[in-house]
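Margin note: ligand = threonylcarbamoyladenylate.
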Amino acid sequence: MVVTVRDAVEMVRGGGVVAMPTETVYGLAGDAFNERAVARIFEVKARPSFDPLIVHVCDEAMAARVVADIPPLARKLMAAFWPGPLTLVLPKRAEVPGLVTSGLDTVAVRLPNHPLALALIRESGCPLAAPSANPFGYISPTTAEHVRAQLGDKIDGILDGGACSVGVESTIVGFGDDGSLHLLRPGGIPLEAIAEATGVLATRYPLPATPSIPAPGMLRQHYAPRVPVRCVAAWDGVLPEAWRGKRIGWIGLRRPLQEGVFALEECLSETGDLRVAASRLFAAMRCLDGADLDGIVAELVPETGLGLAINDRLRRAEGKA
Ligand code: TXA
Ligand code: MG
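Resulting structure:
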């Protein structure tokens, strides 16, 4: 099941689908120009066809094969953050199959910062369509083992790159005609860093371009464990009535106020380091989800830097983002 880059390249060239590590989460990759491969990605994930895929490239020249126009602000962002966890939504070229973009006239493109992903894209010679390698709506995988456990028997191979360093998906931005920037999904690149690099403050959650098509990651129940999650701003030590006497888990930056309340505690960073917290988030959620709990209390983190993405994923896990 774990394959070499050379094997993975063969598979991609033959229209197969392969899980690849990126710095954010593992992706399920196939040739973006091969409709059969793209169709299989949707099928393996049980992903609705209205939810478009991100196309991964290995350099700006390859980006130009899928994107029709790169406005100056997009160029600035590429220069500042590529390779890295920033996805740009730009006008698409006609050659990009409509299946990839769910019929939109834009395409989401990103240059990942991971040597195995870059080798796979470069040697395959084509841009790779790759959503996160999880069943639709479930927690994204940050290790090869996460992928194997859920999709192992449905895909052609897994490139094992160890644990993902960033741990939350890429930040996705779109561009307004007036030079404005829209944050479509908070992620691995903080808004503050974008503002510093460009002088432009991205506005959050604009209306999607086409009302019938949800914008990225905008489905409310997403990144979700099977166990019910309840988010709290700052836990006051009192369990919700319905959860008293039950097996409840905890996820937060630090340990909860009181001891002995939770059956299992996942602390993301005792020092409050949001980067560390992001890198541990999905593995911690999986751990809790596999622990036969009745509920999970999630304490939100400070909403700066990667905290915006972490809280976004926690709220979506609750189903109330
Ligand atoms: O970090 C990441 O971005 C990971 C790794 C594998 O690269 N990928 C990822 O893909 O998170 P996925 O499919 O799980 O999420 C992609 C999001 C979806 O919510 C989709 O709606 C949005 O990107 N998206 C893709 N194309 C779009 C477009 N043309 N316009 C608006 N949103 C788009
Ligand atoms: Mg996903």
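The longest strand covers residues 86-91.
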